[in-house]
Amino acid sequence: MRLVRTLSALALSAVAVVTGGALASAAPLAVNYAALGDSYAAGVGTAGSYDNSCDRNAKSYPSLWASAHSVSNFTFVACSGAKTSDVINNQVGSLSSANTVVTVTIGGNDAGFTSVMGSCILGGDSGCRTAVDNATNFVNNSLPGLLDNTYRAIRSHAPNATVYVLGYPRFYQLGGSCSVGLSDTSRGLINGGADSLDSVISAAAGRAGFRFVDVRSNFTSHGICSSSWWINSVSWPVVNSYHPNASGYASGYLPALSSATG
């Protein structure tokens, strides 16, 4: 009987060791998160005023995701007005081999987002078509190389991270009446430009081995001129114009990123 008790004790000890090891291995890994990009990553569109030169704020999708996932370290360097060159020159230096997750939204400013909207508002359908066509030509022919360089820089500085590239929403809900001054023709042209931009960004992300996060379906029925806007039209302060509002980041961007990251 003593031998049986001894063997039983040894068996229980072995089970405890194995179980303890399994529990230890199942413990969640620390998340070291860095957020790069432009105003869409910074969270522009949500605040009446901003307390830093980059317009970063707590209602941005990176801040919301970091809070929801209890990250161990959060580096937030996205900046309003940033282009691909700014990510390379001013943002990737904040990355390191310790990063496990990196997000980025970039490319809209390279494509002349602000000037396109100005042309569409002031130039009518003809001016809008010319502006969108010029921007789309740049997006298709020049932006891919700029994105490739940017994504290589991100990978070089954060070799161990899973990188998520978030795109841009379509701005407008087409059809019906809307008092923002643009025709459905111009609204459709602008939406088509957003689709071209997302297509090129998605392809570049794929070449880099990054994951593209498409937010467009989340914004369906919530564009400008819908019954429930998640994107600002012309707003005050002006910087908020044509950016998601708080609902856009919380209900559009955050669920898309959370779904992608699991």
Automatic annotation (TrEMBL):
GO biological process: triglyceride catabolic process
Signal peptide: 1-24
Domain of life, per lineage: Bacteria
Catalytic residues (UniProt): S39 (nucleophile), H243
S-S bridge residues: C54-C79, C120-C128, C178-C225
UniProt keyword Cytoplasm, yes or no: no
Keyword terms, alphabetized: Disulfide bond, Signal
SGNH hydrolase-type esterase domain residues: 35-250
Protein name per Swiss-Prot or TrEMBL: SGNH hydrolase-type esterase domain-containing protein
Upper lineage: Bacteria, Bacillati, Actinomycetota, Actinomycetes, Pseudonocardiales
